[in-house]
Each structure stands twice: as C-alpha cells, then as structure tokens.
Design goal:
alpha+beta; Recoverin, domain 1; two-stranded antiparallel sheet; 32% helix
Length: 505
C-alpha cells in the first residue's frame, strides 16, 4: 500500500459523511448503473429488466449484477461500505448467513443475527498502525538519504586511483635510492663469494695433491721411486675401456707411452686414473679421524657465516677515526657482512622501499575490490551499497539463516552440522515499477532427487537492516523478508495528503 493511500485512510474518520442513495450491496463507483425507476441493464449487457427486479432475490443476469445485495446469484459479490474503516467485497453466499462479515453489519440485514458495528474501532486500530508505519517510512527515508551520501562509489574509486599514481612515483624514486645504497653491499658480497670460491679451489687442489702422493706410494710397492706397467696392471679397475681385459698396451697408454714414471711424471698419469683408482689400503687408519670435506658456502637458509680469516686482506677496510662510525655485522642473502654505520642508511632505504611497495600492493587490492563492487547494481542511487560484504542472521528453532546481500543465502543447523547453500546472488526480481523490491538467489545446493535450492527475498521499508522472516512454501523454494531503510519510498508532500474525502453511506 502506497503512502498516499495509507494517509488517505487516516483521514476517513474525520471526513464529512454524505449519504449517497443506491441499492444495497452496490459500491459507490457503480452507482451510476442503478437508477431508480429506469430499466436496469445487466453490466455485461446481456439483458435489460425492470428496476424493481434488482435485489428481488432472483438471479436474472448471468453476471449477477442484478442481485448485488442478496445471495441469489452464486457468482455475485456484496459490497460492504464499512464507514470509518475500509470498504470490502465479500461473496454473495455470505449474505444473511448468520455470520457478520462486514464490520458495519450490512451483510446480515435479514438473518436475525445480532451484530455490532465495529468499523470505528477497527478503523482506529488501523490508523494507529498506519501512523506508525508512516513514521517508520519517514525515518527510513531519511536514513536512506544518508546511505546514498555514504555510497559515493565513483568518487571513491577515482580517489584511490589518483593515490595509486602518487604511490607508483614514490616507489620508483625509493627503488633508485635503494639500489644506489645497496651497490656497495652487492660489491662486498661478490668479493666475499670470490674469496670463498678461491679458498675452496685451493683446498681442493691441496687435497688432490695429497691424494696423488698417497696413490703414488701405494702403487710403488717396491719403493724404487717409480710407478711401472706392472704396478698399474695390479689394479684392473684402471682398465680404460672397462672390457675386463687390462693389457700392457693400455697400461702403457696411461703412462704416456713410457714403461714407468717418477713422481714428477705421475701427475699426468694421476689425471687419467684418479676417477677409477681404488685403494687397496684402508682409507682411515685406526684412531685417525676421517678427513673432512671442504665446507660448502652458506646458503640463503644457512645461519653459518664466513670465518673472518676467509676474507682477503685487501678487502678489510681501515676503521674510520670518526666516532660516529662503528663496525656492524648484518646478513644479506645468507651471508654475514661487516660495514660501517653507513649500512644503516642502506637498510633504511630498503625498509622504506619495501613499505612503499607493500602500500602499492594494498592499493591494487583495494582497486580490484572497488571495481568488483561497482559491477553490482546497487539501486538507482546506490542506496543498497552499504549491504555489500555484510551478512545478516536470523535464528529459528532448528536453523540459523544467513543472508549476505549480493553474495549468498545459507542455512545451518542450530545445534551442529554443515552449512547448506540456499542460493547465490542472481538478480533484482521485483515488478517493473519497483524492481529493487525483490532479490533472487539461485543455484543453491541441490535437494535430494529435486531441484537446486533458491531463495526469494522481499525488501521492506524499515529503520533497521535485518532478516525478519523465513519460510519454505514449496520444496527447495525459500522466502525471506528483509527490512532495510534503502527500501523506503519518499513520503508524499503534505499538500497531496489532504484532499476532501467523503465516507460512503
């Protein structure tokens, strides 16, 4: 019911009553068709009869229009004037049936039923109710205006985009500062890596030489200072082609075409056999600790650091005599480096850049969220924007229903159990003249051997935002009533609410 109709009804009790003569059961809007003393033509045009046959308790017209005030026609309707309340139509079969259907008792004029006219009381109660509804509508509409002002979606997006441009400029400037500050650090790290690699190479070379000397002594079984063909042939694993037959010619090939070599000539032989040679002696003597492998450099996840002795002397910097400078160890990519106080500036530049880059990522996320948000239809003036990313619950004796506008509707057992989808956001589904009065949520969890669940949400004007009722009128089809200020219409102007009104009598 519109506000105009509501407030029009409020004026009925105080309006001047003017009696308009017409046959019993005829509404004021059809009075023109019933003129006393003139023949009556059925409203469907099928027949014309004398006027004295109107309400004679005999049905002459097929459309029952000649018996508006009796029960003669099974398809007739009786008009209750109900002065002081609301006029209504009732089936003619209820006329003079002993039950008062009209609050003004006019339907029981000849039944002998004892009825009281309750129209004024009913009208008073309805007017009280309608006054409250009018106040709610007025207050709700004011809240709706606030919601519209708060929406401001387009301006919000442009503001964030503008801020992103400033942040991008700041990030690039800080990136330049950071990279310049990190340059000495990168160079120091490269020097450390090179020194460490050189040290490892030297250690490996020394170990290889020691191993070569050991193998020479093992092969020189007669201790004559030479390794001969016979010495090599005693080690079949040195067969170059691994065919199971180690010949003198193959052994001589390993010796560089010679019959034997001394310690100096053995170096080239060692390069040919070291990958295959198997010592016949125990590699670790009793009581001797095994030889340690060359340690690997610290990785990104390794907490070990280089020993100070590993750093070449030329890399050590002289201490600055300035009291503000001091040595400080810090870790970069798993390597611990030392630097003066200027390293604090490097870390500061890095931190500032990281903070700006993080802020830029957050702005990008914010823009994506806003762009997703404005893709929804939030009403003609964005009045429904405030519901986005919100959820509203309503508990019943068995379930807790949750409505998340523009997202989903769910149902969860009150005393434990999984959540069931009653539909995801589909579309606005109100009538053409008020499309934003109904929401449709579709493609919910499928019912057992039935359709997917779906929910229709009716939006009602109210000062609070809440789910007020839920029902399942048919299997897997749910109905909800949802109050919100965004659904409140604009109240009519006072001048349009006070036309002259006459009570039907």
């Amino acid at each position: 019911m519109s506000c105009q109709c509501i407030l029009l009804l409020l004026l009925v009790a105080g309006a001047a009553a003017v009696e308009v003569q017409r046959p019993r059961g005829v509404s004021l809007s059809k009075r023109q068709f019933y003129e006393d003393g003139k023949p009556f033509t059925c409203l469907d045009g099928s027949k014309t009869i004398p006027f004295d046959r109107v309400n004679d308790d005999y049905c002459d017209c097929q459309d029952a229009s000649d018996e508006p005030g009796t029960a003669a026609c099974p398809n007739g309707n009786f008009h209750c004037t109900n002065a002081g309340f609301r006029p209504v139509f009732i089936p003619s079969s209820r006329v003079n049936d002993g039950i008062c259907d009209c609050c003004d008792t006019t339907d029981e004029y000849n039944s002998g039923a004892i009825c009281q006219n309750t129209c004024k009381e009913l009208g008073y109660k309805e007017r009280e109710s309608l006054l409250k509804l009018a106040e709610i509508t007025k207050e709700g509409f004011l809240l709706k205006q606030q919601l519209i002002q708060e929406a401001m979606r387009g301006a919000k997006l442009e503001e964030v985009r503008s801020g992103k441009g400033d942040l991008e400029t700041k990030v690039e400037a800080l990136r330049t500062v950071k990279e310049a500050a990190e340059q000495p650090e990168r160079e120091a790290k490269e020097r450390h890596l090179k020194a460490w690699e050189d040290q490892k190479a030297a250690i490996r070379m020394e170990k290889d030489k020691a191993r070569m000397v050991q193998v020479f002594l093992e092969l020189d079984e007669d201790s004559d200072g030479f390794v001969s063909l016979a010495d090599l042939l005693s080690h079949p694993e040195l067969d170059p082609d691994s065919d199971g037959l180690f010949t003198e010619a193959e052994a001589q090939g390993l010796l560089g075409g010679l019959d034997r070599v001394d310690t100096f000539g053995f170096e080239s032989v060692w390069n040919n056999i070291k990958d295959k040679y198997a010592s016949l002696q125990p590699s670790v003597a009793p009581g001797e600790a095994p030889q340690e492998e060359v340690p690997e450099p610290a990785s990104d996840n390794d907490s070990e650091t280089y020993p100070e002795d590993d750093v070449p002397e030329e890399e050590e910097e002289e201490e600055d005599e300035d009291d503000d400078d001091y040595e400080e160890d810090y870790k970069v990519d798993g390597f611990t480096l030392s630097c003066k106080r200027k390293c604090v500036g490097t870390q500061k530049a890095r931190d500032e850049f990281n903070e700006a880059e993080k802020a830029l990522r957050e702005v990008d996320d914010q823009i994506r969220n806003i762009e997703k948000e404005i893709s929804f239809d939030f009403g003609t003036e964005s009045e429904f924007t405030y519901m986005y990313n919100q959820c509203y619950e309503m508990p019943t004796s068995e379930y807790v229903y949750k409505l998340c506008p523009f997202n989903r509707v769910t149902q969860k057992p009150k005393f434990g159990g999984s959540e069931t989808s009653l539909g995801s956001w589909g579309k606005w589904a109100g009538p053409e003249d008020n499309i934003y009065s109904v929401m449709k949520y579709e493609h919910g969890t499928g019912c057992w051997q039935g359709p997917n669940r779906a929910t229709t949400v009716s939006l009602i004007c109210g000062t609070e935002t809440a789910v007020t009722s839920t029902s399942e009128p048919s299997r897997c089809e749910y109905l909800m009533e949802f109050t919100t200020p965004a659904a409140c219409p604009e109240p009519p102007s006072p001048d349009s609410l006070y036309p002259p009104v006459h009570t039907e009598l």
